[in-house]
Here is the input.
Amino acid sequence: MSKKVAFSGIQPSGVIHIGNYLGAIQQWVDGQDKYANIFCVVDLHAITVPQDPKSLKENTYRTAAIYLAAGINPKNSIIFVQSQVPAHTELAWVLNTVTHTGELLRMTQFKDKTKTGSDNASVGLFDYPVLMAADILLYGTNLVPVGEDQKQHVELARNLAQRFNNRFGKTFAIPEPIIRKSGARIMGLDDPSKKMSKSAGPANYIALTDSPEIIRKKIMRATTDSGTVIKFDPKRAGLYNLLTIYQLFSGKTEAQIEKHFIRKGYSNLKRELADLIIDKLTPLQKKIEYYMKNKRLLDQVLKSGAKRADKIASQTLKEVKQKLGLVA
Ligand code: TRP
Here is the structure.
């Protein structure tokens, strides 16, 4: 029996933080032998909000470098850049014609990003979930490993696949999200009531590229409470978040961690957590830098990935065009 297809993507829009790493990249690495994996750098999603062209290019390379540094093997998994495979935008247009505007108006991410009520958000931002559906549906994807916040977008991809199949005959596989329980939501360090986010400012996150000094400073200043006992208690959001990060980086169980911190205080926990993060990120940073200094190597990986992706995607697109009665 052939393996299930898993597809996921990250936007090359600046900082990649430990929330992205623990909530997404690490679970991809863990699943890489179990599934047939496709990992995309979604640059066309990034440009739905303004990007500086030079930084976009650099960030696209860096995202690919992070995939490789984290341990994704490009011999088995496909790693590619979205804009290098034209079928993504072509299928997105077709899917636009079966998407209801009401469906997109209900997307919570779009609503959040346009909360200020101004009407200068791009049409691309509104259409973002349809392009994401195209990403997923082009590859016969069965599984989409993402963070909790992307669940609604995957749900839309499922609905569009079903609607298209009903109207035009079975074409797309129906994808399912895989949401990792712990780590699906790493919260902000200075505001543990909300997801860790690069837009909330540098005190909120630890970037994969932060130096040891910065990591230590941010962890020591992280919001906790006035309690003393170190326990995994979701009601104590700040402490719970630090313990979750500890758990994901250490691979230890909750019981082991609680036992380890018996009769120790928050500052102890913070010191040990900072050490642990620095320990885990330092080798990763070295590898990222290695790839960033070897862009020719990155180009080769991405070119061969795009070729493999294009082969699958063009086939799906051809079938879609035939079903629609578009001359292809
Ligand atoms: N929207 C996703 C995010 O911001 C990124 C993404 C784009 C994606 N296309 C995808 C994730 C397809 C999974 C599958 O996290």
Notes: The chain has a mean pLDDT of 94. Residues 100 and 113 are 20 Å apart (CA to CA). The first helix runs from residue 18 to 30. The chain has 13 helices and five strands.
